Amino acid sequence: MAKYKAAIVGLGDIAVRPVAPAFDPVLGEEEPYSHAAAYALVPEVEVVAVCDIVPAALDNFARLWSHRWPGVRLYDDWRTMLEKEQLDMVSVVTPDHLHADLAVAACEAGVKMLLLEKPLATSHEDAQRIIDAVERHGVVATVNHTRRYGPHYRWALHQLRQGTIGQLSAIIGYYGGPRAMLFRNTSHMLDVICMMAQDDPAWVAAELDKDNQDYGTVYKGDGGRDPAQDPGAEIWIGFAGGLRAYLSALKTNPEEMNIRLIGSRGSIILRQREAELELASGWRVTKQSAPLERFSRSGEMAAIYELIQIYETGQGTTQCPPREAYKTVRLLLGALASNAAGGARVPV
Ligand SMILES: NC(=O)c1ccc[n+]([C@@H]2O[C@H](COP(=O)([O-])OP(=O)(O)OC[C@H]3O[C@@H](n4cnc5c(N)ncnc54)[C@H](O)[C@@H]3O)[C@@H](O)[C@H]2O)c1
Hints:
The protein is an alpha/beta fold. The protein has helices spanning 13-16, 35-40, 55-65, 78-84, 100-108, 124-136, 151-162, 182-197, 299-313, 322-340, and strands at residues 4-9, 45-51, 73-75, 89-92, 113-116, 140-143, 168-175, 201-208, 233-239, 244-249, 257-263, 266-271, 275-281, 284-289, 346-347. Helix 5 (100-108) packs parallel to helix 6 (124-136) and helix 6 runs antiparallel to helix 10 (322-340). The structure holds nicotinamide-adenine-dinucleotide. The site of nicotinamide-adenine-dinucleotide (NAD) has 26 residues, from helix 1.
């Protein structure tokens, strides 16, 4: 019998997508992308309940996953679910602006581990409520800023900590395409910048995509669906220790992501699924790709194992506790405030 009982709330694609077969059957399947696919590979956890307010989403979950968890109970109200189930772990996979009430209630209901989708929240108040509840109830929590658990990004962080490129002096990135939406997806880029800076952001200056001068200082999106309500942005960040980062995340940029970590002896270039080291000497550059080793854990699966390990040992912190993920929320809301102030630097 599994040691821990889990529930998934919000049954969109990132919650339920089944694993796809690899391009060659010899390789089995691709690594899990969704919460359900990750839980399915962790024998310590049984998904005992799921919740969505849309009946078709519940039906879809049952169709895709009831073979794996035949007894799973389907709820259309997470309050009822929290009352009836004795849950150890909850995945919060509701839309971007609907994480806080559920996360706080789960902490109050005695849930021990939380896997929260990003961004942590879309307002300071909601972010603060989650941080307070998690810390007050001693819940082990991580925010699924996926790259924190991605091998190439962890390789880059390891190189930085080893001093391979010397002292980090700047971070420059770009991101684009129709879904370069500030809260929904650019939040990943801002989180990578915070992860690599290993510092607290002090100020931000930003301009949103054109025609958004009057967007205002409050998130106006619908949780991540309609790109029109969640613009792109150009963002300039100052960290407390003096490091600067610049990110161009406009919808008119190419549909690609790229972050360059610039150090005193070279750079690391991070892309969606690869990373490269460039060491400079006398105008010559030596290049080296991140090793393509395979690991037994990455993505949501690594996050789930990390939650369990920290819960069981009482030691350590997750890769992205809510207080760490709040840095990105501060930058997102700071970007709106700066845009409203004509691109001025604003403290975050
Ligand atoms: N980490 C990643 O790479 C990644 C990728 C995709 C999405 N996400 C995040 O996951 C979250 C969900 O994204 P999505 O694309 O699946 O969104 P979605 O809108 O497609 O699905 C969200 C689901 O939540 C349900 N829901 C809404 N309110 C609810 C409530 N009160 N109780 C129960 N269910 C409710 C909706 O009916 C819907 O089925 C977002 O925060 C998003 O940013 C993260």
